[in-house]
Design brief:
Layout (H helix, E strand, L loop, with lengths): L3 H28 L4 H25 L16
Length: 76
């Protein structure tokens, strides 16, 4: 079993995060009256999300995903 299983789980969580973020952005744009506070909130949300995604992407690149997670030796 390789570590790439965790990478697949990360991509699933990333897809869900993007989906929920699109819903949140839609509700911010659609239902909140245009004001400087609304644009500031949207900017902070997008900037925070971009920083988190960039930081995790940088961390993911440092891992050897072909390395095995564990091995089972059944030698008698």
């Amino acid at each position: 079993m390789t570590l790439s299983v965790f990478l697949i789980v990360y991509y699933i969580f990333l897809a869900l995060f993007i989906l929920f973020s699109l819903f949140a952005i839609y509700h911010l744009v659609r239902f909140i009256p245009p004001s400087s506070a609304a644009f500031f909130t949207l900017y902070i949300f997008l900037a925070g999300a971009a920083i988190i995604i960039f930081a995790t992407w940088q961390g993911i690149q440092l891992i050897d995903w072909t390395q095995t997670f564990f091995t089972l030796n059944f030698s008698l």
